[in-house]
Amino acid sequence: MLIYAKFGKFRHRDRMLRLWTWRGDEQVLDVGTGRGLLLVGAARRLTTGHATGIDIWNKEDLSGNALERSEQNLAIEGVMEKCSLVSEGAQKMSFPDNSFEVILSNLCLHNIYDKPTRLRACNEIARVLKPGGVAIISDFKHTREYAEAFRKAGLRVERKMPNLLTTYPPLRIVLAYKT
């Protein structure tokens, strides 16, 4: 766990971000942005694009989790002008249909404790994903459930095995492509 906290989370983030061929003009959504690890990584790959992070910033889900912490991290990393933060849950997003080319999420959806609400979150991700885009979702449980929900929403799905050397608990990645 300590190795993941110090090093593995950065390697895992970079592994997730390498699964998309970046142009720099993408509209990106980070679901459950927490302190902004994925959001910062995506924003660094943008030139004219924009990255939005959503979260409810629940301290029970991540210690020290707060909107102010995310804002500080974006400022420290020099990506604040490429990013927006929105306080809302994944199960009912305010964005129009087909808003984002890339949707990212790491260790978030399992924090939605009841299955029907998790499935609503997956359906919302599918709804706001643009045709030709990808959702890259990483978690240590419920990934089969996410994959099935995305398939039912009409997305093409792949699952990646965890890297047991750099992530603990083992994190699977679900890739969901909207055609």
Q: Could you report the average pLDDT, rounded to the nearest whole number?
A: 92
Classified in CATH, the superfamily is Vaccinia Virus protein VP39
Quaternary organisation: single chain
Q: Give the DSSP E fraction (strand runs of 2 or more residues).
A: 25-35%
Please tell me the CATH architecture by its name: 3-Layer(aba) Sandwich
> What Rg is obtained from the alpha carbons, in whole angstroms?
15 Å
Strand order of the largest sheet: 3-2-1-4-5-7-6
Order of helices and strands: HEHEHEEHEHEE
Level-1 CATH class name: Alpha Beta
Q: Globular, elongated, flat, extended or rod-shaped: what is the shape?
A: globular
* Uncertain segments: none
Q: What's the total number of strands? A: 7
Structural class: alpha/beta
Number of helices: 5
Structural write-up:
The protein has five helices and seven strands. It has 179 residues and is of the alpha/beta class. It has one domain: Vaccinia Virus protein VP39 (Rossmann fold, 3-Layer(aba) Sandwich), CATH 3.40.50. A seven-stranded mixed sheet has the order 3-2-1-4-5-7-6, sandwiched between helices. Helix 1 packs parallel to helix 2 and helix 4 packs across helix 5. The chain is globular and about 40 Å long. The termini are far apart. The relative contact order is 0.17.
